[in-house]
Amino acid sequence: MMKKKNFRALLVSCFLTLTWIVLPLVAAGAEPVVLKMVGFKEKTFLFEDETVGLLADKVEKLSKGRLIIKFAGGPEVMRPFDMGIAVKKGVFQMASLPADFYTPLVPGAEVLIASECTPSEERKLGAYDLLLEMHKKAGLFYLGRTSAINVPEFLISSNKPVKTREDLKGLKIGAISPAPAPSIGALGCTFSIVPAPEQYIALEKGVVDGILTTRKMFVSSSLFEVIKSFIDHPFFVGMATTIMNLDAWNQLPKELQDLLIKAQKEAEEEHAIKNTKLQQQLDQKMKDAGVKYIKFSPAEAEGYVKTIYSAFWDTQIKKYPKVGPELMKLLRKK
Q1: How far is it, in rounded angstroms, from Cα 333 to Cα 311?
Q2: How many CA atoms does the CB half-sphere of 67 hold within 13 Å?
Q3: What CATH number should be reported for the domain whose range is 32-147+239-276?
Q4: Rounded Cα–Cα distance for residues 235 and 228 (Å)
Q5: Which of 8, 143, 200, 299 could serve as a FRET partner for 84 with CA atoms 20 to 30 Å apart?
């Protein structure tokens, strides 16, 4: 009887030992969780120009390969304006695209373009939390900013002579998304959406007189070959965001959720610092290419920037009477 008990004890001991050995091996050999992502730019530009490359690298390293962000394609696989709904439906788990590309899903998210806060300040002041709740209502999870920068970065270029604000009236100005339309209109310009790949030709053929864009996009698209002047009074910031399917988010273990948020925060902070420093280098490249920087008088410059922001917020508050004022309070410093 004693021998049988000892034998059973030995079996239990062996089983427990095997369990301790086998279970970690099973976990270690488990297939990684792969999140398929689409983006509004081609992979090279998206991963190098935005936070996406940093995010993907950090996620893979921090998770030791257990969580992978796999880029499924850019505009060549799907219209960027359709990517938001594709993520909501679970066709893809993630997307990186300007907030106004999915406005029907998250009305008001496009106000991010007028934020005067850094990405970290948006989290501290509660803007991130409000945006997260807005996204959740649409079946999305707002991970954070794809375009992270600490200073205003958009400039209006012109092929026509511009010396004062009055010279802007009647000019045709294009941009990749509709959010800046009220501000451009308030300056007396005609606004139109011109996708990034079409901007060079649109300028070359005179379809538009100028483009609202960043130094980075101006240089990477070689727009300096077809336009030679910029109004050097920057405003607005990139409003591209990184979003997830809410069910896909909820199915992740808490550990991987925390890891994703940590990686996103770090990517935002690192990219913002890097991007701010990059502005000087881009300035030099543009000047070397013969681009002229137009400066208004101090009073005129102040009125120019004030008109842009006031027109934008007036429109957003009328359009979104509930979240508009809330977001303006959280995103404006003045």
Answers
A1: 17
A2: 24
A3: 3.40.190.170
A4: 19
A5: 200
Say how far apart CA 233 and CA 231 lie, in whole Å: 6
Residue 153 has pLDDT above 60, yes or no: yes
Please give the Cα distance from 52 to 271 (Å, whole number): 10
Q: Looking at the domain that runs over 154-237+279-331, which CATH code has it been given?
A: 3.40.190.170
Which amino acid, one-letter code, is at 11? L
**This prediction's pTM:** 0.82
Cβ distance 98 to 177 under 8 Å?
yes
Rounded-to-integer distance, Cα 5 and Cα 138, Å: 60
Q: pLDDT (tens digit, 9 = 90+) per residue, 251-309?
A: 999 999 999 999 999 999 998 888 878 888 888 898 899 999 999 999 999 999 999 99
Q: In this predicted model, what pLDDT tens digit does every residue of 66-88 receive, in sequence order?
A: 999 999 999 999 999 999 999 99
Q: Which residues pair with 64 in a beta bridge?
A: none
314 Cβ contact list (under 8 Å, min separation 6): 182
Sign of CA dihedral 49, 50, 51, 52: negative
The runs of H, that is alpha helices, within the chain are: 2-28, 43-49, 52-62, 80-88, 119-125, 127-136, 181-186, 196-204, 215-220, 246-251, 254-288, 298-319, 323-331
For all residues of the chain together, what is the average pLDDT?
Answer: 89
Strand bridging mode 172-175 / 190-193: parallel
Identity (one letter) of the amino acid at 305?
V
What is the number of alpha carbons within 13 Å of residue 122 lying toward its C-beta? 29
